[in-house]
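Sat 14:20. Reprocessing the chain from the morning session after the first attempt stalled halfway. Input below, unchanged.
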Amino acid sequence: MTRAPYAALRSLSIWTCLGTVCAFSVAPSALFGATECYTGSCTATCTPDAPAAVSTLVSGFPGVNDTPIAFVDPADNLRHRFVATQEGVIFVWSGETQALLPVPFLDLTSTGLNKVLYGGERGLLAMAVEPDYRTTGRFYVYYTRVSDGDIVVERYQRSTGNPDVADPASGTVIFRIDHPATNHNGGQLAFGPEGYLYISTGDGGPQCDNGAGVSGDGQSPGTLLGKILRIDVRGVDPTPAANECSLDASNYTVPSDNPYVGQASACNEVWALGMRNPFRFTFDRDTGDLYMGDVGQNEWEEINLIRASTPAPANLGWVCREGCQSSFASSGCSNTGCPADSGSTCEFPRASGFWDPILCHQNAPWVSIMGGYRYRGQQVPVNAGRYFYGDAACGQVWATNDFDETNPAAISSSCWLSGSSNFGFGEDHLGELYIVRGAAHVVSCIHNGQGCYWARWGGLFEDGFETEATSRWSSSVP
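Finished this time. Tokens:
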């Protein structure tokens, strides 16, 4: 793809919403450039840039079908990590023994719970701990409910007597969302820089977003599907808005600065819209920017960037737009209710219209893009500032090469690792990265040729008595 020339725009920075469509005008002197879109196959073999390396960290799941879906560092100054599986069981990996403990942290499939509907795109899909989990012991799970396939976000509590076991009786439903199809369930959980919980939801499927709005659920602020939602689960907002669209919504509040608060026929929980199946998103721990992978239909898999400075709500365009094209042109979806298409050239940020991705890959060979993390750790300097992402079927991990902080559109990426079909990535309290390889039933770590010895750490003096080489001493402070 040929990169479009950069140009200065002379408009005010403002969001304008007419009906269900929001357009963004860029601040004076801002630059825009072409998104990078890749069309090559995923059969090439590639390896990490020396001296970076990848090694298996977690394996040996007790069930042959245990599929790791999330790798979570609770940052509680204990030498353990949590590994959630799509089937509904959360295991504990011990940094001391470097193996999974025989007793699960929480089994949502056990007798008496039996909560998770597993299969295809359903199951336990995400887990997140509160930023102050060390004190509160509270964590959240996102799963499809066994009785009807609805989406449930639920809070649990660490047990009082054993930090390696959760209290199965502590489950509190935060909310439930009706979900009409077996696919496009989303979904991710992550706490933002301000302490609010962000939740990604798919458009409800099955294809072309056959949802409630004129242009489907993704384009309708009056539904919770095809969105990123933003809620307060910790009671830190002194002036919360009322819950509005969620079912069973009695255990959270809505931040008063959410973009649709107080608007008729809109859900107060909505923070961003226009998504198809945003399975994974993360926050840049240095900047607060949000990076998200949105699974495409017939043409484009997207990596989207919503900067911390971007006014909400960002509208990513689905079902009206896929990648940088009209979805009618690329995937044959109806354009009823969509505005006139704003062109087929990718721009970031766009002068007006829908928010384009910064990276995209052609669907086939790519199938299901997995958004990852921007590397902010210290142990693998060769990866500093690079954004890592992948695909569930392609078998490759990609990483950005050129990434200008002041102009994200000036970006390029390339294959970084092959033979690694995966369901996503993980990040620990030090900013080090892990690859969650669902198909292989392992979690791998990215290191600098010496293995991920820091994964055994917990907090200050976290390798025990600091008896190893000084290069391996901990520098983190709880």
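The first strand starts at residue 7 and ends at 8.
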